[in-house]
Amino acid sequence: MRKKLVEVLKEKGIKSEEVLQAILEVPRHFFFDSGFLEFAYEDNAFPIGSGQTISQPYTVAFQTELLNIKKGDKVLEIGTGSGYQAAILHKLGAKLFTIERHRSLYQKAKTDLPTWGYRPRFFYGDGYKGLPAFAPFDKIIVTCGAPYVPEALVEQLKPEGIMVIPVGDNDVQKMLYITKDSNGKINTQNTGDFAFVPMLENKE
Ligand code: SAH
After folding, report:
1. Known catalytic residue: 55?
2. 42 assigned to some structural domain
3. Residue-wise burial string across 8-43, b where 16 or more C-beta atoms lie within 10 A, e elsewhere
4. Pocket lining: 81 vs ligand 1, CB cutoff 6 Å
5. Does residue 173 have its Cβ closer than 6 Å to ligand 1?
6. For the domain that residue 24 is a member of, what is the CATH number?
């Protein structure tokens, strides 16, 4: 089933062999409740509780491809959710820091992922603030729809760093590919429309 999913992603335009290999290796069904296993290898988002969703595999592959992860990259993820995207980044050799604002999702990912061999550092908190104590980061990925690009995240990006963030209203967001050059100059490109659950400003 994972091989089939990889074929679907290739047809949709994902090219990175490393990303496709990671999708082939990470068992997405681990991130689903046992009653919903048959949905795990469809190219769709799916509810994970607390009103949130595990991102569509194509979206995970697309964002990960843009990040161009190199082994040892220090990466910040906003929106741990199910932890699937985190597992893919870990598999690619990222040193990952991931933040979630829903306590129950944070707890579940922090408990489950290490038992499956994925060991990012988990934080319960507000993604708008990033993680100043651990900054700067080579790469930053936001996996919820942000109303604007949080300034704190731009500040926490290293020179030569890459940030991928969906920005827009609640229904549709533009996937922004933001780079910072060696002088700290920011360049932003729009890579297309996506739909995410919203990035929320205040805690539950
Ligand atoms: N990367 C996840 C996607 C989950 S959906 C996965 O692979 O499953 C987006 C997640 O972002 C949700 O779990 C939501 O609770 C979280 N989120 C929303 N606003 C946030 C914020 N301000 N800070 C951190 N996480 C946030």
Report:
1. yes
2. yes
3. ebeeeebebebbbebbeebebebbbeeeeeeebbee
4. yes
5. no
6. 3.40.50.150
What amino acid is encoded at 133 in this protein? A
Q: Is 105 in the pocket of ligand 1 (CB under 6 A)?
A: yes
Residue 201 belongs to some domain of the structure? no
Asked whether the predicted pLDDT for residue 204 surpasses 60, the reply is: no
| Residue 109 belongs to a domain | yes
- Distance (Å) from CA 95 to ligand 1 centroid: 19
Distance CA 101, CA 32 (A): 20
The tally of domains found in the chain comes to: 1
Residue 166 CB less than 6 A away from ligand 1? no
pLDDT recorded at residue 203: 59
Catalytic residue among 16, 34, 50, 55: 55
Rounded to the nearest angstrom, the distance between the alpha carbon of 190 and the centre of ligand 1 is 21
The alpha carbon of 21 and the centre of ligand 1 are apart by a number of angstroms equal to 24
- Full residue range of the structural domain in which residue 127 is found: 2-194
Question: Which pLDDT tens digit goes with each residue over 44-98?
Answer: 999 999 999 999 999 999 999 999 999 999 999 999 999 999 999 999 999 999 9
Query: C-alpha 156: how far from its chain's center?
Result: 17
**Residue for token digits 């993680």?**
131
Q: What is the pLDDT of residues 2-56, one digit of tens each?
A: 999 999 999 999 999 999 999 999 999 999 988 898 999 999 999 999 999 999 9
Query: Quick one: tokens of 130?
Result: 């990033």
Residue 204 lies in a domain: no
